[in-house]
């Protein structure tokens, strides 16, 4: 990990962000400052824009407006440097291609290999370099999936796939981990395993930002919470943000949001093409 990055107090800063799909606004006027070396939970109802926020933070979606920096540098810089690891929701992945668990996790090392001298990049043996193999093995061990290393990725259960996706994010050895629902669809022992792994990663100085619907897990482990539903609905300590009254406000915003979407769908000015 680049330790100079960890000197900043904010890992991610978002200013005046607007994002939309086919002119339909999904995120509006988002201002955020996510603390470095801390564990942040992004909490919001279905369709609140949480995954969209991650798409913008990884640079895979261009916002309509606004600025997003990580450790004081544009997201594009981090995209090239591989300093932000992203774990997508399991449902968003195509599983039918014939690669093994080991190869899936090794793909997280491409960014490191790209930093090598050009002639090294041409060597097929780079896949077998000790530092890459060690990072993959450690990540698979962390999520208790080393025994499945040779299995085709498509031949795993849903919870096992999730652990492999987390291993891939860990193997990148990035400064920031963006995890979209890492706890969804896993059994209680796996959930505990994942929470323990993330706790260790946070203790090692990494910044973790995770989308979650698991309130007990968030209350117990995270340092910082962002409530979101198209707008930021609150940001602060877990005790305050995950209180019954705050969560009730968020639920009400969800009902209002649904009513808004119905009215926008009928509006010729914002209708999608
Ligand atoms: N590719 C897309 N094209 C058009 N609309 C989209 C697209 N992806 C998401 N949306 C819409 O954008 C809104 C926000 O979606 P997003 O996936 O960011 O929500 P989310 O908070 O991650 O939800 P969930 O908790 O269900 O995963 C939703 O209304 C969704 O229907």
Automatic annotation (TrEMBL):
GO MF, one example: ATP binding
Keyword Secreted: no
Keywords annotated in UniProt: ATP-binding, Nucleotide-binding, Transport
Every ABC transporter domain range: 12-255
InterPro entries, per database record: AAA+_ATPase (IPR003593), ABC_transporter-like_ATP-bd (IPR003439), ABC_transporter-like_CS (IPR017871), Metal_Ion_Import_ABC (IPR050153), P-loop_NTPase (IPR027417)
CDD domains: ABC_Metallic_Cations
Pfam families: ABC_tran
Similarity comment: family membership: Belongs to the ABC transporter superfamily.
Protein name: Metal ABC transporter ATP-binding protein
